[in-house]
Design a protein that fits this description.
Number of helices: 8
Helix content: 55-70%
Distance between the termini: 26 Å
Number of domains: 1
Order of helices and strands: HHHHHHHH
Shape: flat
Largest sheet: none
Radius of gyration: 22 Å
Number of strands: 0
Strand content: under 5%
Length: 181
């Protein structure tokens, strides 16, 4: 549709990877934060009293959330197409999905066979990751049992931080940097 004769100066590998990280950070937070809130702090205290570190207890409890968010982050990174196509193509930066598109629709002669092989490779990679996750989590139950004193960790400090007048400029700057990355 549009021809870009001038190479885009902002289309570098680091800026595109920064964009993928910014997109993935929110998804990772939404998956992992509730898992952290569900962990009873008395489990960590008991582990420390027994001589173990807290990660010996926390890591197995966080494993389902960490694996799910890691796989989702990988899929989001691999399916990224619009920004690499618009910014990367004029700068001759090719990623997996733009290569599939170029093979299918980019040349004078379409090469649907090669595009299909690359797309199936992506599908097999994703399926393999899901299989590995199922094997790692097989036969385990991830339920946190707590006593009557456990109320869960509150995110009230986040709400207070967002509503306070002192945080308006830093929060606006942070959000702007995430969207501009």
């Amino acid at each position: 549709m549009f021809a870009f004769d001038v190479p885009c100066a902002t289309a570098t590998r680091s800026s595109k990877s920064g964009n993928v990280c910014a997109r993935s950070a929110t998804v990772l937070f939404l998956f992992i934060h509730p898992a952290f809130l569900a962990i009873d702090s008395t489990l960590e205290e008991a582990a420390r009293m027994a001589g173990a570190n807290g990660w010996r207890i926390n890591l197995p409890l966080l494993m389902p959330a960490l694996l799910a968010s890691g796989i989702l982050s990988f899929v989001v990174a691999m399916e990224s197409f619009e920004i690499p196509q618009l910014l990367g193509t004029p700068a001759n930066i090719v990623v997996f999905t733009t290569r599939i598109y170029d093979l299918a629709y980019g040349g004078r002669v379409s090469n649907f066979g090669a595009a299909t092989v690359l797309a199936l490779t992506l599908l097999v990679l994703t399926g393999g990751l899901i299989f590995v996750q199922a094997r790692l989590l097989r036969g385990r139950s991830y339920t946190t049992v707590s006593g009557r004193g456990f109320k869960g960790r509150s995110i009230q400090w986040v709400i207070r931080l967002v509503r306070s007048k002192r945080s308006e400029l830093p929060m606006t700057t942070l959000i702007s940097l995430i969207f501009l990355a």
